[in-house]
Design goal:
The protein is mainly α. The protein is 89% helix and 0% strand. The protein is built from five helices and no strands.
């Protein structure tokens, strides 16, 4: 009976030890590389590195947990950068649209300007959709970070 209890105890200890997270230097290196890329403003590369870590190292739980937080930070920064760029372009396109509208009202060549006005309106509307999408993405990331 004692032998049986000892075997069970040894098996239980072995099972607990096998469940402990193992050091994974490759996963740590990928996480560090993603952090460096993020710090250097190379957001697309950082996201790709995080995806590689998640794909190639499913057992690296600690690194994957850290990578998830980093992923949210990178995606947020990338969306904020794109939002700022889109906002500048959108404001310029709105101004251009207003200028064209004013010229059409006073110009004898208004028919020629109508095509340009239509194209400018299309670009303005497209930028507005992009702007709204980036705003929604940023709000979603903030929500997920608070839940985290």
């Amino acid at each position: 009976m004692k032998t049986r209890k000892r075997i069970i105890a040894v098996l239980a200890v072995m099972a607990m030890l096998s469940c402990q997270p193992k050091e994974n230097p490759e996963a740590k290196a990928l996480l560090e590389r993603a952090r460096t890329e993020y710090g250097e403003g190379r957001y697309s590369e950082a996201l790709a590195t995080i995806e590689q870590l998640r794909r190639d190292h499913p057992q690296a739980i600690d690194e994957r947990r850290q990578a998830l937080t980093l992923f949210q930070d990178v995606a947020l920064k990338q969306a904020q950068t794109d939002l700022a760029r889109t906002d500048s372009l959108l404001e310029a396109m709105k101004l251009r649209y207003e200028q064209l509208q004013a010229r059409i009202k006073t110009s004898p060549y208004s028919k020629q300007l109508e095509g340009e006005l239509t194209e400018t309106r299309r670009l303005r509307d497209s930028l507005q959709v992009r702007f709204d999408t980036q705003c929604a993405k940023i709000k979603y990331i903030h929500k997920k970070q608070k839940e985290g």
